[in-house]
UniProtKB/TrEMBL annotation, chain A:
InterPro entries for this protein: Cyt_b561_bac/Ni-Hgenase, Di-haem_cyt_TM, Hydrogenase_cytochrome, Ni-dep_Hydgase_cyt-B
Bilayer-spanning residue ranges: 16-37, 49-70, 90-107, 127-148, 168-192
SUPFAM superfamilies in UniProt: Transmembrane di-heme cytochromes
Keywords: Cell membrane, Electron transport, Heme, Iron, Membrane, Metal-binding, Transmembrane, Transmembrane helix, Transport
GO biological process: respiratory electron transport chain
Occurrences of domain Cytochrome b561 bacterial/Ni-hydrogenase (ranges): 10-202
GO MF annotation terms: electron transfer activity; heme binding; iron ion binding
PANTHER family membership: CYTOCHROME YDHU-RELATED, NI/FE-HYDROGENASE 1 B-TYPE CYTOCHROME SUBUNIT
Topology with respect to the bilayer: Multi-pass membrane protein
Designated name of the protein: Cytochrome b
Species assigned in the record: Geomonas silvestris
Region (Disordered): 212-244
Primary site of residence: membrane
Presence of keyword Electron transport: yes
Taxonomic lineage: Bacteria, Pseudomonadati, Thermodesulfobacteriota, Desulfuromonadia, Geobacterales
Automatic annotation (TrEMBL), chain B:
Protein name from the UniProt record: Cytochrome c
Phylogenetic lineage: Bacteria, Pseudomonadati, Thermodesulfobacteriota, Desulfuromonadia, Geobacterales
Keyword Transmembrane helix attached: yes
GO molecular function: oxidoreductase activity
Matching SUPFAM superfamilies: Multiheme cytochromes
Record field: transmembrane: 329-354
A Pfam family matched in the record: Paired_CXXCH_1
CDD domains the record matches: Cytochrom_C3
Domain Doubled CXXCH motif: 120-155
Length: 244, 364
């Protein structure tokens, strides 16, 4: 029978960022829908309220994007390891992870991903979050800032081809992020239990089976390929067990 | 008695003769070069001899004959409005009688009397009667220049900014009369702006006839956009113009302009409800016209294909009324993208449900 241990997965700054971002994005989706379809959607009351809510939520998401960037890049200095796929990820990792999601998961095999310190995403997550966090979110924030300041930033809008180009980009990128949200939430349910990955994003700690690492060591000694590990993410610099 | 009658007759004859002697030169003078009375009414050449000459008259008295010539005021003639100009004008030192607009524009006058402008500005405070243009012949930017004569741009921006998001943008992209008169129907008034010699990103101003003529190399300026010369602008022609890098300094702008113009200026509460414009939907966005300047200072209005401003990207890249002129195709694409995001969770979740026993067995 395997022992359980607690690992500290999500530090407080990341949890704050995540949930502020989550609330902000849901608010942006609702207010954005009313702004685009005012004749059909009136959830937030007046159009002016919808615009103000959208602007405030957008600014909060933008500020917290900077918070996330500063924390990972300058405080923890782990942004590159977490979000940028390495050579192994590109050559084999992404395909291996894709095969796991498409086939191995259904036959009951564990994930091929083996978490490393400050490398909590599997290769597919890295690729997806690289696009989301470094392309889509900055693009939607930048186009949003332009749309909020059409007169003062007129020159930048003209350089981009006009306000319709900016608005179209903003709308389509926002739709793409909305689409990603479904996948993001669904994948979060693929832990040992459906809520296993939600808990660490709330409390910071995740309960994992201790035998995983033992198994890994045994497998490694016997020269077996490094597969068969469920994703274990941890921060070894933190104590393994929280204070009661 | 006879002597008395003769004396009266003599005095009467002398009076008539004296009156005749005084009147003949005056009548002769009225047909002279200085005035356009009587048979010359409508031609106005006599008045314009001086009033079109910048060296003889200045300011509001200086009239552009080309601009004045096409107005209704020119057809009825100068004396119709400026009655009783003395024959000795301008050497007699008397002031030329001012026009009484109410004589003809009775309805406008009654309408104006009900507006918040009444008593604060006369007709000539906004209109130059010697350069009459209907709103359809003007660009929206020029309509606002009339208002800007009294209403300071910065003060107005600050005042509207108290409740209106992006007040600067609204004041720049809308004629004041769109919100401050009660017109029910609207059209999009398109016009060309140029950045003069400041490059593509300079300050835009309404392009003059001369600039556009130069841009076309002397051809009809309509051919800048209307490439097939059918006096009708299609969406394809708009896209072609907007993507043409030869016209870097020219951009097409548009304003939501009232179809029927009222002189009853007022502050309307329903305009403070943003959905009046932003929720007006594609119905209002159907009609648009392009206003192009003419050599005589007037504007020519050319019809544009229905729904041009609803084009996704390049029909009118600088005109976007959030919520109203969204492109439907783009909305469907957005919906498809969002639904695409559900494919993986739904399919994977379904297979996950079917194969749940595999994972349970492994765990055991």
């Amino acid at each position: 029978m395997s022992a359980k241990k607690m690992v500290y997965l999500q530090p407080i700054p990341i949890r704050i960022w995540h949930w502020v971002n989550a609330l902000g994005i849901v608010t942006l989706i609702i207010s954005g829908a009313q702004i685009r379809f005012p004749e059909a959607i009136t959830i937030l009351g007046s159009y002016k309220t919808a615009i103000q809510v959208h602007n405030v939520a957008g600014l909060i998401v933008a500020v917290f994007l900077a918070w996330w960037l500063v924390y990972y890049k300058m405080v923890r200095n782990s942004l590159d390891d977490i979000y940028i796929p390495n050579e192994e990820d590109i050559k084999h990792g992404i395909v291996r992870q894709l095969l796991y999601y498409c086939f191995w998961y259904f036959v009951g095999r564990p994930s091929p991903f083996h978490a490393m310190p400050d490398s909590k995403f599997n290769p597919m997550q890295k690729a997806a979050y690289l696009v989301v966090m470094f392309m889509l979110v900055p693009l939607v924030v930048l186009t949003g800032i332009l749309l909020m300041n059409v007169t003062p930033l007129r020159v930048l809008i003209l350089m981009s081809g006009g306000i319709k180009i900016i608005d179209t980009l903003h709308f389509l990128v926002a739709c793409s992020l909305f689409a990603f949200l479904f996948t993001h939430v669904y994948l979060a349910t693929l832990g040992a239990t459906p809520l296993a990955y939600f808990k660490p994003m709330i409390f910071g700690w995740e309960e994992v089976e201790d035998h995983d690492e033992e198994h890994h060591e045994e497998a490694h000694q016997e020269g077996e390929p490094q597969t068969g590990f469920r994703p274990v993410r941890h921060y070894p610099e933190h104590p393994a067990h929280p204070q009661a | 008695m006879k002597a008395a009658t003769k004396h009266i007759m003599y005095r009467l004859l002398m009076t008539v003769a004296l009156a005749g002697a005084l009147c003949v030169p005056a009548l002769a003078e009225s047909d002279g070069p200085g005035y356009s009375f009587g048979e010359t009414t409508g031609k106005n050449e006599a008045c314009l001899t001086c009033h079109a000459d910048g060296q003889k008259v200045k300011g509001a008295s200086l009239i552009d004959p080309a601009q004045f010539g096409h107005t209704t005021h020119a057809r009825i003639g100068c004396p119709s409005c400026h009655e009783g100009v003395a024959p000795t004008h301008p050497t007699d030192g008397t002031r030329t009688p001012r026009a009484n607009c109410q004589q003809c524009h009775t309805e406008v006058n009654s309408e104006y009397a009900l507006s918040i402008h009444a008593g604060k500005a006369s007709c000539s405070g906004c209109h130059n009667p010697h350069k009459v243009e209907s709103p359809r012949e003007m660009s929206g930017m020029e309509i606002n220049q009339m208002c800007g004569g009294c209403h300071d741009k910065f003060k107005m921006s600050a005042k509207h900014g108290e409740w209106l998001p992006q007040a600067d943008l609204h004041l720049y992209m809308l004629p004041c009369i769109t919100c401050h008169t009660g017109s029910k129907n609207y059209f999009i008034s398109m016009y060309l702006v140029s950045t003069k010699n400041q490059g593509k990103l300079g300050k835009p101003e309404v392009a003059s006839y001369e600039e556009l003529k130069e841009a076309t190399g002397g051809r009809d300026i309509l051919t800048l956009i209307d490439t097939n010369h059918d006096n009708y602008i299609s969406i394809a022609e708009l896209r072609s113009f907007n993507l043409n890098s030869e016209h870097k300094a020219l951009r097409l702008q548009g304003m939501l302009t009232p179809e029927t113009v009222s002189h009853r200026f007022e502050i309307l509460d329903d305009r403070r409800n943003c959905t009046f414009c932003h929720g007006s939907g594609p119905t209002v966005m159907q009609t648009s016209y392009l206003s192009l300047p003419e050599a005589n200072g007037t504007y020519r209005r050319v019809q544009v294909e229905k729904g041009a401003v609803l084009d996704a990207l390049y029909g009118t890249p600088d005109f976007y009324l959030m919520g109203s002129n969204k492109n439907n195709m783009l909305s469907w694409i957005g919906l498809a993208v969002i639904c695409g995001g559900l494919i993986m969770p739904v399919c994977h979740g379904f297979l996950r449900f079917l194969t749940r026993k595999n994972r349970t067995r492994k765990e055991h």
